[in-house]
Specification:
The protein has 148 residues and is mainly β. Strands 1, 2, 5, 6, 7, 8 and 9 form a seven-stranded antiparallel beta sheet that branches. Strands 3-4 form a two-stranded antiparallel sheet. The longest helix has 10 residues. The N and C termini lie close together (8 Å).
Length: 148
């Protein structure tokens, strides 16, 4: 990634799915990584705890978009609801890539979600008294994130 004086805007991004799902989103959240801490004290140390890296944790990634009449996100969720878990644990799972783009729509930072699958789908909140876009939300569990 090239260094520049002004930070990139959060509004210029795209999401790619390795399993052929095609969708555009208005919001992506949950791109994070956390590591637990294991505290250990030997019998020789009176009051000092040493700290070691523990298990890595990754939040679910949440994708939001306006409803446009396609059912491909629901179809993926339905595939998972009907049973994933073939012998190599890849059925229903896909690599999902989120690209932050510059003004020329070229990727400048890329996050890759390994073995992502839809753990939750949320339809729109409907209300006759509101003048808002109908949104659907897809929440993805995954087995690790990398950044390039």
């Amino acid at each position: 990634m090239a260094t520049r004086a002004n930070p990139y805007g959060v509004f210029n991004f795209k999401v790619d799915f390795a399993n052929g799902v095609t969708a555009s989103f208005s919001e992506v959240s949950g791109l994070d990584s956390e590591q637990g801490v294991i505290e250990y004290r030997t019998g020789e140390d009176d009051t000092v705890m040493s700290k070691h890296p523990g298990l890595r944790k990754h939040s679910n990634v949440v994708l939001k978009r306006g409803i446009i009449g396609t059912t491909n996100l629901w179809a993926w969720r339905e595939q998972v609801m009907n049973g994933i878990g073939n012998t190599d644990d890849t059925e229903g799972k896909a690599q999902v890539t989120v690209h932050l783009l510059n003004e020329k729509r070229e990727p400048v930072v890329t996050w890759k979600l390994n073995k992502a699958w839809p753990v939750k789908w949320v339809g729109p909140s409907l209300a006759a008294s509101k003048n808002e876009t109908a949104l659907e939300t897809l929440e993805l569990a995954h087995e690790g994130i990398t950044m390039e």
